[in-house]
């Protein structure tokens, strides 16, 4: 897959104005689903401060020879489009890049159509980009796993399997929400004191989890595995992911089968899927893995990614405040290892599935990826600029995660994922 990707050429410039510091230069071209003016949902591509309507582009005759259909592009989700697979998606992104190139006049000259093809971003509503059939959440940051482990097992924070298996669990996809969607604080069973019976009520330990997720194309039939060398051919792109968690509910329920209602009440996704192709310039070497992993998980080359991550908390009526600065590069297990492991037993993946990284914590305490770690189980509350403190997330708080890669003046951004926490709905 090391062929040159035309759309990635850093010399390319678009005739669409790109503001300084934009997440969406011509080298990015992420895909999403938008609605505008009460019309049906369409597939769009972000460019500068505009959304390019791929359905309108297709109808204007600019996207022939890609085996596309109207129904793939006038669609509530990207899943149907993803059936065309990696090679055609790459060619499609190259074509869109060509049409936006400053030297290319074919679309620029069609003044009468490009008004309907390029829509100002502030006029559209972005929707959840995929309908995830399946959702896996990994646990692949060694700092996060060690932090959480050390809170509960100070002498033995990392369990014996951790450096051999990309640990994960199958999560719930029905409660995924797009950035900007508020949700109510969940209720559930918690334990006040070990040994006492549980009580029922709103969680007192609502937390965010700073994660990224990758989205797949169609995989292979059930029973066939995707090797680590093949993995990139099956990965479409990435989103920012906030795996909202209720720590007190989690603590009581997770033995013996893992997290359940503590994780499935809301999970926030950013609306733009940045293609793995657009992230190729930001590949870096992965963490050294010792002891050596089994052969099916061994890989060569630079498979990690340098993606800056920031988390902000905005208390109600106050300013947003940076509470964590991390980076995707702190992942111990790569996406390719995760996908190779997920399918090694013959498990099949489908177009639009979501595979989340697990909480990404940097080694420094200022880069931990959850309140559980930042405030260390409530023992080191964070001081907020408005004079309040936070051990966990309060009602009225808005949590925003931003992600972007940057190198040699090229910035490929994800935008953000944000959500406001509303008070619990009383139990009647
Ligand atoms: Ca998680």
Bound heterogens, unique = calcium ion
User: Helix content range of the residues, please?
Assistant: 10-25%
What structural class do the secondary elements suggest? Answer: alpha+beta
| Overall residue-averaged pLDDT value | 96
In the CATH scheme, the class of the largest domain would be Alpha Beta
Question: Largest beta sheet, briefly?
Answer: 8 strands, mixed
CATH homologous superfamily grouping of the largest domain: Fumarylacetoacetase-like, C-terminal domain
Name the beta content range.
Answer: 25-35%
Q: How does the overall form come out from the CA principal axes? A: globular
CATH architecture heading of the largest domain: Alpha-Beta Complex
CATH fold field value of the largest domain: Fumarylacetoacetate hydrolase, domain 2
Tell me the count of domains.
2
Query: N-to-C terminal Cα separation, in Å?
Result: 56 Å
Number of strands: 26
Instruction: Give the low-confidence spans.
Output: none
Give an account of the 3D structure:
- The structure is a single chain.
- This protein has 428 residues and is of the alpha+beta class.
- It folds into 2 domains: 6-127, Roll (SH3 type barrels); 135-305 and 327-364, Alpha-Beta Complex (Fumarylacetoacetate hydrolase, domain 2).
- The chain contains 10 helices and 26 strands.
- The protein has helices at residues 54-59, 70-73, 79-82, 85-100, 111-117, 142-152, 247-253, 276-279, 335-343, 371-374; strands spanning 31-35, 42-47, 50-53, 118-120, 125-127, 135-138, 168-170, 176-178, 183-184, 187-190, 199-202, 206-207, 210-216, 235-242, 245-246, 267-269, 274-275, 283-284, 304-305, 308-314, 321-327, 354-356, 382-383, 389-390, 398-407, 410-422.
- The strands form 7 sheets. Strands 6, 7, 8, 13, 14, 16, 17 and 22 form an 8-stranded mixed sheet that branches.
- The longest helix has 16 residues, at 85-100.
- The structure holds calcium ion.
- The site of calcium ion (CA) has 6 residues, from loops.
- Residues 137, 209, 211, 243, 358-359 line the site of calcium ion.
């Amino acid at each position: 897959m090391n062929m040159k990707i035309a759309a990635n050429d850093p010399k390319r410039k678009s005739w669409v104005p790109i503001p300084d510091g934009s997440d969406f230069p011509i080298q990015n071209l992420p895909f999403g689903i938008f609605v505008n003016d009460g019309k049906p949902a369409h597939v769009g591509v972000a460019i500068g401060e505009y959304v390019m309507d791929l359905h309108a582009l297709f109808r204007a005759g600019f996207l022939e020879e890609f085996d596309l259909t109207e129904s793939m592009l006038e669609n509530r989700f990207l899943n149907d489009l993803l059936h065309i697979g990696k090679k055609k998606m790459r060619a499609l992104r190259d074509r869109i890049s060509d049409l936006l190139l400053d030297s290319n006049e074919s679309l620029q000259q069609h003044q009468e159509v490009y008004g309907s093809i390029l829509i100002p971003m502030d006029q559209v509503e972005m929707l959840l980009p995929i309908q995830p059939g399946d959702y896996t959440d990994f646990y692949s940051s060694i700092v996060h796993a060690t932090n959480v482990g050390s809170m509960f097992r100070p002498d033995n924070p990392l369990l014996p399997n951790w450096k051999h298996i990309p640990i994960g669990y199958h999560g719930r996809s029905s409660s995924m929400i797009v950035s900007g969607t508020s949700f109510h604080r969940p209720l559930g069973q918690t334990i006040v004191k070990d040994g006492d019976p549980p009580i029922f009520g709103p969680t007192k330990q609502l937390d965010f989890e700073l994660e990224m997720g990758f989205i797949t194309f169609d995989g292979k039939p059930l029973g066939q595995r995707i090797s680590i060398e093949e993995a990139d051919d099956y990965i479409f792109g990435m989103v920012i992911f906030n795996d909202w968690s209720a720590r007190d509910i989690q603590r009581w329920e997770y033995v013996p089968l893992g997290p359940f209602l503590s994780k499935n009440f809301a999970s926030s996704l950013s609306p733009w899927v940045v293609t793995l192709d657009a992230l190729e310039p930001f590949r870096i070497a992965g963490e050294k893995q010792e002891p050596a992993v089994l052969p099916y998980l061994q890989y060569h080359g630079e498979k990690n990614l340098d993606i800056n991550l920031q988390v902000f908390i905005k208390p109600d009526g106050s300013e947003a405040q940076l509470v964590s600065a991390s980076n995707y590069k702190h992942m111990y297990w790569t996406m390719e290892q995760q996908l190779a492991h997920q399918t090694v037993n013959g498990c099949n993946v489908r177009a639009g599935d979501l595979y989340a990284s697990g909480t990404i914590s940097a080694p420094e305490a200022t880069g931990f990826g959850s309140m559980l770690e930042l405030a260390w189980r409530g023992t080191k509350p964070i001081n907020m600029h408005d004079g309040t403190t936070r051990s966990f997330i309060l009602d009225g708080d808005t949590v925003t995660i931003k992600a972007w890669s940057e190198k040699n003046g090229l910035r490929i951004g994800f935008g953000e994922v944000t959500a406001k926490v509303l008070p619990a709905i009383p139990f009647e």
